[in-house]
Amino acid sequence: MHLEKLEIQGFKSFAPKTTINLDRGITAIVGPNGSGKSNVADAIRWVMGEQSIKNLRGKKSEDIIFAGSNAKGKMGMAEVSLYLNNEDSRVPIDYSQVVLTRRLYRSGESEYLLNRSKVRLLDIHELLAKAGFGQKTYSVIGQGMIDVILRSGPKERREMFEEAAGIKHFQLKRNSSLNKLERTKHNLVRVGDLLNEIGPRRNSLKRQASRAMKKDEIRQELKVLQEEYFNYLWNKNREKIDAAAAEGAVYLQQEKDIEKEINNIKLKLNQAEENIDYSREDELLNKLNKLNGEKNSHRERLAMIEGRIEAVTQKDLSIGWGDFEKSRSSLTEEKNIIVNDLKNLQAEKNDLQERMASNIDKIEQIDKEKIVLDGDLEALRSQAESGGLMEINQDISQLSDIQNNFFADVEDCKNLDDLELLKQKAKGVRGKIKEIFRRVKDRTGGSSFDQEQLRSIQGQLENIIKHKIELEQDNTDIKIKLAVIDNKIENQQQAAGKNEKELKEITDRMENFTSEDEGENLALKQLSLDKEVWQKKFDSITEEVTRIEEELKQERIKERSARKDLFEMEKEYRDFQEKLNNVRNNINQNQIKMAGLENDRKLIVDEIVDNTSQEEYHKLIILFEKNPLSILPEREQELKQKIGKMRKQMIAIGEIDPQVVTEYEECEKRYTYLFGQKDDLEKAMESLKKVIAELDETINEKFNIAFKNINEQFQKYFEVLFGGGRAKLIKKKVRVKEGVDHDDQEETEEINAGGAKFKEEEQIEILATPPGKKLKNLGMLSGGERALTSIALLFAIITNNPAPFMVLDEVDAALDESNSSRYADIVTSLADKSQFIIITHNRETMRRASLLYGVTMEQSGISKLLSVKLDSLPNN
């Protein structure tokens, strides 16, 4: 095995990918200080698993990633790959070439690869140990580390000798066996704890399992009885539900029929309302207004003629006594008519006012009754929405606002034109009142609330609302009539005043009349003739007005009769509405009955599910419906008693996990299994102890052989390097404190026991005496002597167990020219056993190399390699 090549990228000063191809012999890497040549040794140590950043001459992990320079930015990853020729299968894997790769990202993530497959660091260590070398010992001797061989503590020094002895993989096996032994001990304790824990549980489960089997027997018998009992209850309940559903269907059909009748009555009401013809009344009113206008015009014409007659008579007293008599008679007759009309109008007005006052008293009484009913409804406030009572109150409030506004308009009525507009508005008000009345009917009649108290209140509320609407409608008609009467009275009073004035003038003149005034006056006679003509016209219009007023009166009587028929239909509507309320109450009662039966069924379902399961319940229902049972009352009572008794027995047994029998069987099986495991673990412990003892024996045997050979080679190379002198390795037994690092221990005679726990340990001591000197310890050697001693020991280790390759980083830096030559001779003699990669400034070492790499920095901060194959150069 040997190192074929090394690939470096992004590691320290090697920014671009750099490949170092190596020969089997000696390869020298040279270059000025600071050029980065020692980074090659650091790269090899790092890829072999070095974890100490300090040993790699850094402070933190990202220090090994190229940090950037003036010519190139920093890199995000460092990668080193080591290519090993494994044709001799020194590494125990089926590859002729082994590639070890390590990567580190600036984020801190790292990974190891073996032939481009991800592996663990432990896998790398085990692989190198089996091959006989590793990064922790002598394979890579870094800059300044040659003296560490002498200064290292007992632990590090022994590790180096153990690796040189080739027993590392045995130690790994021993450590693995010790770990297994420790785990086995722990498992044995755990098994013992589990057995102690399971024992009482096993006994408890055994008792519970016995009770569970008894309970299961009762449950099986109970299941048969319950199926029969539940079958009977289920089908009995279903029959009741079917009967109630059929009864409900009848009520629903009745509701549908009554609603149909109500809809028909509604259509009739609408048709009756449309059949009430107000056009004839309007026509008569228009005609009456027109005739009154003509009558007033004729009255004004007569007044003008009479004025002219009065003017003539003052100048010409030739008018006859007969004319005066005739005029006075006519005026007297007119006065009597006016007085009689006023008397009749006042009587009619008084009657209407009395009727309206009575209506107002009744409305006030209704409002008081409504307040009482509202108080009763307040107690049912939470249920009011279902019956529509809140909407009824809103409708009543709206009705009151509409009527109040209309009454205000009536008060503002001044003449016949205003009265005509008021009449048109009255039609709209009447329509709104009927719409509100319809909604009230629908709501009070459509309530589904089934409390008798609410139904009573609804009926009372319906009646008083209907009565109030009728009274207010009557008052509306009265106010319209009063306005008409007041207008007539005003006109008659004006006519009476004028008549009184004319009659007084005629009477005064008649009192002053003499025989001398009998002279003929043609002009006055002509005026008298005109007056007669216009008087006849006036009388004719007056008769027509009287006739139309009578016809208007008859038309209104006819309208009242039509409205009476309308009220009869409304009464019929209310009767059907009452029937609908009764049917809906029956529907509600049926729904309550159905709800009770459904609740009974739910209780049966709950009982079935509680005593079986949800899945079993569905199966039982299918069975009940296919095979319904009908049993005698005696059998029902018997089943009920038996089921109750068995349930009490099951309660007495208590709640037991249904899986307790299975759990007991599993517990028993586990108890037996653990007993077997305990025996197996005890056997395994004995086997592991035997393996560890055999490994200890093998390790000690191989270590002793290697130690003897290294000791001999150490003396040999020491004499070669120093030209004489003595050097040897001594094994020494010391007693050390447990739990304290080896480097902090002292020899047995220097330890103060003080009750502390100690163990005996073998340590290796290095003795070296250069020729002509007497030294007691290594600390008295000079720097050069320490370097030569370390080199001698290093070459002794290499001779005993040559590593596939050795990396020596300026190991010869402290040697003088003569020692450098001897050092180079030894390296050359060992080059056929190990491959050497030497980082050096020494010319003697360079001269022995077959391949020379020069490291330079053409660009600031970036290392670059130049290679020269010395074997191919001319001898001169």
Give a quick precis of the structure.
This protein has helices at 38-47, 121-131, 148-151, 154-164, 168-275, 279-315, 321-379, 384-387, 389-411, 416-446, 452-511, 522-611, 614-626, 633-653, 660-722, 783-800, 817-830, 843-848; strands spanning 2-9, 18-21, 26-30, 77-85, 97-105, 110-114, 117-119, 140-141, 726-737, 758-769, 805-809, 835-839, 851-859, 862-869.
Unreliable runs, pLDDT <50, ≥5 residues?
446-450, 515-520, 742-753
List the strand order in the largest sheet: 2-1-4-5-6-7
Helix content: 55-70%
Number of strands: 14
The count of helical stretches stands at: 18
Alpha-carbon distance between the termini? 34 Å
| Rounded Rg | 67 Å
Largest sheet: 6 strands, antiparallel
What fraction of the residues are assigned to beta strands by DSSP?
Answer: 5-15%
Write down the overall mean pLDDT: 78
Structural class: alpha/beta
**Globular, elongated, flat, extended or rod-shaped: what is the shape?**
elongated
Explain this structure:
There is one protein chain. The chain is α/β, with parallel strands linked by helices. 67% of the residues lie in helices and 11% in strands. The protein is built from 18 helices and 14 strands. The protein has a six-stranded antiparallel sheet. A six-stranded mixed sheet has the order 8-11-12-3-13-14. A two-stranded antiparallel ribbon has the order 9-10. β11, α17 (817-830) and β12 form a beta-alpha-beta unit. α5 runs antiparallel to α12 (522-611).
What are the SSEs and their pairings?
Layout: E1 2-9, E2 18-21, E3 26-30, H1 38-47, E4 77-85, E5 97-105, E6 110-114, E7 117-119, H2 121-131, E8 140-141, H3 148-151, H4 154-164, H5 168-275, H6 279-315, H7 321-379, H8 384-387, H9 389-411, H10 416-446, H11 452-511, H12 522-611, H13 614-626, H14 633-653, H15 660-722, E9 726-737, E10 758-769, H16 783-800, E11 805-809, H17 817-830, E12 835-839, H18 843-848, E13 851-859, E14 862-869
Parallel strand pairs: 3-12, 3-13, 8-11, 11-12
Antiparallel strand pairs: 1-2, 1-4, 4-5, 5-6, 6-7, 9-10, 13-14
Helix pairs in contact: 5-12, 5-13, 5-14, 5-15, 6-12, 7-11, 9-10, 9-11, 10-11, 10-12, 15-16, 15-17, 16-17
